[in-house]
Every structure is written in C-alpha cells, then in structure tokens.
C-alpha cells in the first residue's frame, strides 16, 4: 500500500508541473507551446505506470520482505518520486532549446537507477528462492529476470544517444514503453502451473 501510494502521488505530481499559459488573450497559441510538457508528461506517466505494473509482478511473488528488500524498495520509491523533477527539467529544455543534451542524460540516468534497483530487488529475492512464494516456480522466476535484465542496457543506450541527438535519446527511452507493457509469458505460465498443482492437491 505504501508503494502504491508513493507511485500514485508521483504520477499526480507530473500534471502539476504543467503550468497554464499566463497570456489568455492568445490561449490557443500558449497551449500549443506547451507541447514539450505534454510530451514528457505522457512518456513519464506511461513509464511510471509500467514500473507500477512490474513492481506488482515482483511483489506478487515475494512471500515476505526482509529488511534489505525493504531498503532496496525504499530506494526505488525514492527514485520514482524524483522522476517528475527530471521530467520537468527535460520539458523546460525542449521549450527553450538549450541544455537538451544534459537534460536527456539527466532524465535517462534517473530511469537507469530505477531499472538497476528493480533488478537488484528481484535477483536478491529469487536467489536460492529465499523470499519467493510458491506462486512461481524457478522457470517463471527466470522469465521475470530475462525481462528485467535488458532494461538498464536499453536505458543506458538511450542516454548515450541523447548526448549525440537529444530527440533520438528520448525516442529510444520512449520505445521502452510498449516492450515492457507486454505480459511476461513465462511468469503467466508459471502461475498457471502453480494453480494447477494447488488444485490437484487434496
């Protein structure tokens, strides 16, 4: 509940960063000039939503959280809560046309840290099945790992490309969205196997 609350507040703060135009005599023009804010809002909202979904994927299969998992999760939530600021920085540079490379790298690093923490939490929990629930078998746990592991590399590539061409870097990070919204087939199959075993027991 705490994790869900932090993520819910974070996505709400994204829209707060979009300031309405002060010049209401030319409102349509002013609203149009806010396109960088709309763009970063949409990308960041979908990425945070994706984190929320995958956070549930992890903790649906973690039977108990020790103090180290709680620490890692706190660090992850701290990073997620930071994303509205990184998004606002990126939007401001897209509007002004200055500092875009730095802003894209800053934005990318913010996601890079979160992606690494996702992997740390899951790999720690699944090592020796120390914290995993019987809702998932070893094959399913490996499937989740295979989905999580490319994320830091993908985001790092977008961050580096952002140094060369800011909009290309943003596009690569945004391409992260459809891939990571896809269901994890191995995890779904594992859950079905666990349910089938549970139903077959007297």
Describe the fold and architecture.
With 202 residues, this protein is mainly α. 80% of the residues lie in helices and 0% in strands. The protein is elongated and about 65 Å long. The protein is built from nine helices and no strands. The two termini are 34 Å apart. The longest helix is centred in the middle third of the chain and has 30 residues, at 67-96. Helix 1 (2-16) runs parallel beside helix 4 (67-96) and helix 5 (100-126) packs antiparallel against helix 7. It has helices at 2-16, 27-32, 35-59, 67-96, 100-126, 138-148, 150-164, 166-181, 185-200. The model has no long low-confidence stretch (mean pLDDT 88).
Give a summary of the structure in a few sentences:
This protein has 202 residues and is mainly alpha-helical. It has 9 helices and no strands.
Note the topology.
Layout lengths: L1 H15 L10 H6 L2 H25 L7 H30 L3 H27 L11 H11 L1 H15 L1 H16 L3 H16 L2
Q: What are the key terms here?
A:
202 residues; mainly alpha; elongated
Mean pLDDT: 88
Shape: elongated
Proportion of helical residues: over 70%
What's the helix-strand series?
A: HHHHHHHHH
Q: Biggest sheet: strands, sense, closure? A: none
Distance between the termini: 34 Å
- How many DSSP H or I helices? 9
* Total number of strands: 0
- The assigned structural class equals mainly alpha
Strand content: under 5%
Query: Poorly predicted ranges (pLDDT <50, ≥5 residues)?
Result: none
State Rg. Answer: 19 Å
